[in-house]
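Researcher: Predict the fold of MATE family efflux transporter.
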Amino acid sequence: MLVDMSKHLTMGQLLKYALPSIATMIFLSLYVVVDGLFVSNFAGSRALAAVNIVYPVLMVFGSAGFMIGTGGSAIVAKTRGEGDDARANRYFSMLVYGAFLLGIVLMACGYAMVDPLCRLMGAQGEMLELCRQYGYVGLVSLPFFVLQYVFQSFFVTAGKPQIGLYVIVAAGVTNMVLDALFIGVFGWGVAGAAAATAAGEVLGGTIPLLYFFRKNASYLRLGRTSFEGRVFGKACANGSSEMVGNIAMSVVSMLFNFQLLRLVGEDGVAAYSVIMYVAMVFGAVFIGYSMGTSPLMSYQFGAHNRVEQQSIFRKSVGFSFAGGVVMCLVAQVAARPLSEVFVGYDAELLDMTVTAFQIYALMYLPMGFCVYASSLFTAVNNGLVSALISLLRTFVFEAGAVLLLPVAFGANGIWFATPVAELAALVVACVFVLAFGSHYGFLKPRKKKDARPAC
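Model: Structure tokens for MATE family efflux transporter follow.
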């Protein structure tokens, strides 16, 4: 069913609209989780640590898909809100073709950079070889990985978020089945994990191409277009916060791995791998909600419907904080059983993972609003503020905490780095929202006090 983006949505309807995007992001995160589960149980903790070292490198290159998808969908949705569907489709086609070409260029760059980046993070010997295996195989599908993320944003703008979910479920199931075959049956280890993920990504990028090339029941369709540098540049600038956020998260993961190898050893990296797998799934809820509701905000922003903008904002703030409380409580209770699934074969590693897990889980309390605030400014076409929130949240606060807290508190200080960084980012996000909210329409204008007559 095609969703009417112009109508008022209750909280239940808003959640229903965002649910396919939430489920989509969870399935995307399960790509890596399933890889880690099979690698850990069939190839051991060293192989698990190697995957966790090289995967952030792949994410740095793949983050171009987030940038073009989120930034471009905001422009396309706003253009639709202004009533120009023909121009919106022209922009959509140009952005998709451009993203695929950019993915090919980034794939070539990736082959030259995987080895030196893994060495820089401290990988050597057998671990370096495992990193190479996963990285070189994983890069084959990079152009489709980029398209996969581009289309997930555009499916929402096209009024068909449920189709995006079906595509990711198909890709995710393919990945899981091939993981079991390549790792569990054939014994291909990290190379098999990368090949299974690559197959899922190719599927996730190809199916939407076929869907949008054909006549379909959505608001968007791929067709002939011409390159418009101004629009493409604006999409990249507007979505730069998502790219900055993903690159920064990858860099922070590299810093975590570097510090853990130095202070704790390979077991520390393995413990962090388990925490990040769960964090990816939990974080996917916030990212998916933001991705699913941002085109709605962009559409209403283009239509100058301030009442509906404010309604979407209020409901989203409530979801962000309520979701954070629930996730934090669930993580505290589930820390041990979830850790046992990955590293139950090693009692000492299991205890370390559980302790780290429970500390790290405190970050879910402020995380939801930080993620939403960044996507909110992307939705109203202010990529600069969105990028600043992402940049401060990760590159400044989290990277700084990873480097400084262990100096004061030893190895356990590493696990507090993300909760401390998210709390600082919450303060910054609130300042920006209060400062610009009335200007962009998602907060009511402040009432001016009546001037009192002079005595």
